[in-house]
Amino acid sequence: MKTEVVEEKSENLGLKRTIAYAVLLLLVMGSAIMVVLQVFQYRHDYRELSSFYRERDDLNAEWGRLLIEQQTFGATAQIGTRAVTQLRMYSPPAAQTVVISIPTSTENKK
């Protein structure tokens, strides 16, 4: 009878070990799958962040160009105002305007 009890206990112990190994194996595989998914998500998010940085840099460059353009237009008006007030420059009337035309090659042949 004792041998039967010992055999039964060893069978139960072997079955428990097998179940424990199977559960541990499932947990390790689940952990490995979660690591792979996390790395994939990290790479996806990093790629998206990099594209946002590139877009930010492009927008900053465009903003700088627009500021330069705005300053250029402001300077043009300021130059015109100074030319009239300080240098007393003006646009001549039509009577004082002379148009000079340069003869073209077809007019030289005639």
TrEMBL record:
GO terms for cellular component: cell division site; plasma membrane. Signal peptide: none annotated. It is found in: Cell inner membrane; Cell membrane. One of its GO terms (biological process) is FtsZ-dependent cytokinesis. Pfam families: FtsL (PF04999). It is a single-pass type II membrane protein. The keyword DNA-binding does not apply. InterPro entries: Cell_div_FtsL. The chain crosses the membrane at residues 19-40. Keywords: Cell cycle, Cell division, Cell inner membrane, Cell membrane, Membrane, Transmembrane, Transmembrane helix. Its main location: membrane. Essential cell division protein. May link together the upstream cell division proteins, which are predominantly cytoplasmic, with the downstream cell division proteins, which are predominantly periplasmic. Part of a complex composed of FtsB, FtsL and FtsQ. Belongs to the FtsL family. This is Cell division protein FtsL. The lineage of its organism: Bacteria, Pseudomonadati, Pseudomonadota, Gammaproteobacteria, Moraxellales.
